[in-house]
Amino acid sequence: MVEVLKNLPAESNPNLLVGFETSDDAGVYRINERQALVQTVDFFPPIVDDPYHFGRIAAANALSDIYAMGGTPLTALNIVAFPSATMPPEILARILQGGSEKVREAGAVIVGGHSIKDKEIKYGIAVTGIIDCDKIIRNVGAQIGDHLYLTKPLGTGIVSTALKHNAASTDDVATAIAMMATLNTIASELMVHLGAHAATDITGYGLLGHAYEMASGSGVSLKIDYNRLPLLPGALKYATEGHLTGGAGANREYISDKVELSEQFTASEVEILYDAQTSGGLLIAISPQAGMQFVEQAKQRGLEVWHIGVVVKQDKSTIIVGR
């Protein structure tokens, strides 16, 4: 996809504040001197068995792009592909119910949508939000000395794959579902309030892929401490058993030559780093002092966050992961 986008002509509209040139999480279009619209879209096939939970996760995943920019969701449009000839409409109703409830939780409203017939279920939403032009947080702008924070555990792709292989425990799946369905609202509000320098949400490119985009666009390198990374229950075990996503392989091919990994890592630990995530947490680059406030204020609001690394001067390796 990156190669495809490179071939598209650059937009020159002066009101387009953020386009696709730096792989940001959403586009931003100025509508007046103070405000801009934030727009994004995402949809995918089911990653869990329950249609209601799938709807919740898919909606939370799309809404996360708005939060990663520091925006507030306003409206959403459903996007549906459904095999109506082979599946009962009750399944689609449950998917839409889950998505609708999550959009409502975000303080936004579903205003319509579009559906097509397809052999495989796919669902997601297109979201429009609002943002202060002076408070846009992009995936570029990380500064040397910044601390890196992650707001959700890793391993959703591995746990979801283990579920498809009937190898995941009920408790581990429930924990992963609850995490993926959790909105990034609190983390987004706090990072805007505290003046974070850069942020992105961790989704299909995995931790290393999204970290690379932040580092490369900011002209810095990121040092990540593996021992500080939060992992979903069972993720490492399922990785060891071979329940891996195809996305992880693509991520490795995409950036492995930009990453320096400690020789101490096991193959399973490396898989965690490349694992393609769904509705993951925010990766935030923020000054050390503001970072301390971020941790404290997040705790006060019931959110656990993890300090996983630092931003350093650009090195021969864009991402450096050690213990």
Q: Please, could you describe this protein's structure?
A:
The chain is α+β, with helices and mostly antiparallel strands and 323 residues long. It has two domains: 2-135, 2-Layer Sandwich (60s Ribosomal Protein L30, Chain: A), CATH 3.30.1330.10; 147-322, Phosphoribosyl-aminoimidazole Synthetase, Chain A, domain 2, CATH 3.90.650. Helices cover 37% and strands 25% of the residues. The strands form two sheets. It has a seven-stranded mixed β-sheet with strand order 8-11-7-12-9-13-10. It has a six-stranded mixed β-sheet with strand order 1-2-3-6-4-5, with helices on one face. Helix 3 links the parallel strand 4 (72-82) and strand 5.
Beginning-to-end CA distance, first to last residue: 32 Å
The assigned CATH architecture of the largest domain is: Alpha-Beta Complex
Shape: globular
Q: Determine and state the CATH class of the largest domain.
A: Alpha Beta
Strand content: 15-25%
Give, in order, the helices and strands.
HEEEHEHEEEHHHEHEHHEHEHEE
